[in-house]
Amino acid sequence: MPQQTIRVVIADDHALFRQGLRSLLRTQPNIAIVGEADGLDALDALLAETRCDVILLDLKMDRIAIDRIPAFARQAKVVVVTASESVDESVAAVSAGAAAIVLKRFAVEHLIQAIAAATTGGVWMPPHVQAAMATTLRSGPRSVLTSREHEIVRQVGLGLRNAEIAQRLFISERTVKTHLHNIFSKLDLHDRVELALYAVKTGIVGTHESRLA
Known about the structure:
By secondary structure, the chain is of the alpha/beta class. Helices cover 52% and strands 13% of the residues.
């Protein structure tokens, strides 16, 4: 029985890297490249009119790319292809719904394997990210938070509202709301008051800093 064709979209703002991915993927008879995008707006437009099974997403393509993973993951499997070796970013991407993390410097060795895992319902990531994920799961709720989520919790503990947090951290208010949704879910909390108390109790915010003090 012939293999089912995997329809892939490449989303990366570096033309040379996209060219390299094209060359690699074209060696695979069961993979078809159905589109390319060099930014999130272009990717949105492409996905609106093109069906795909896998999105190869560069997290650094736009500043908010990681915050769009949940939406993209509802349309296709998201395989993050990144030059960043930040464990926090990789953990955050997987938590947001990415099915695989591939470091750009190892793309030739790992990308095909990662796509295969993602399209069969698995998760693929480098060993150091696997180790970090295991550590966070063993260490309890606070460690499960990413560094950005820790910072959001701190700002809430200081009494800032969403608009103020967005301005201070140079992100959109929608991004703040997305982080808060994920934080409430991870910590099993229900509102900002509970989160602010959590920030004080865990030492993320000192009692002398919090407006609850």
